């Protein structure tokens, strides 16, 4: 709920137009500020099993000063290019310099960690009915490559698909 700032001189929450600290950096309310705030909150939330709960953090100077974070992400290639969003290159790493890039959904889908319930230890390989299933996620679509008797066959099928379709952003296993 937003109140008339001229009449009440405040908005819901801690924002106060008369408080000059809100205008320290000039980014309040921008997409980049909201991105910074969202990342900061995910990282400090230890109940969030995908971020704070597994130790993912934000670079200390960025946590304290959004303008340092915003200036950095604006310097990265493909900044705010249509269809692109911020991605951690090493998804087990932190939000820190040299671990961020702007990428499309396809590239982000290829940059996945091994799920906890994965019993094989390989991305894109799982066990179903005593067979090894091989798959690739491409443009938000699961492409099942088949069921195999051995894990080596499943890995080879996935690697061959990646090579034959020139999916350079996928890791060969």
Tell me the strand percentage band. 15-25%
User: What's the Cα radius of gyration?
Assistant: 21 Å
Described by its quaternary structure, the protein is single chain
- What structural class is derived from the secondary structure elements? alpha+beta
Describe the structure.
The structure is a single chain. This protein has 2 domains: 29-103, no CATH class; 115-173, AP2/ERF domain (GCC-box Binding Domain). The protein is built from 6 helices and 5 strands, in the order ααααββαβββα. The protein has helices spanning 5-8, 31-44, 60-64, 66-75, 105-110, 151-164, and strands at 85-88, 100-103, 125-128, 131-138, 141-148. The protein is elongated and about 60 Å long. 14% of the residues are buried. Mean pLDDT is 84; it is low at 1-15.
A few lines on this structure:
With 173 residues, the chain is an alpha+beta fold.
Spell out the key features of this protein.
173 residues; GCC-box Binding Domain; 2 domains; 3-stranded antiparallel β-sheet; two-stranded antiparallel sheet; 31% helix; elongated
Write the layout of secondary structure elements.
Layout: H1 5-8, H2 31-44, H3 60-64, H4 66-75, E1 85-88, E2 100-103, H5 105-110, E3 125-128, E4 131-138, E5 141-148, H6 151-164
Antiparallel strand pairs: 1-2, 3-4, 4-5
Helix pairs in contact: 2-4
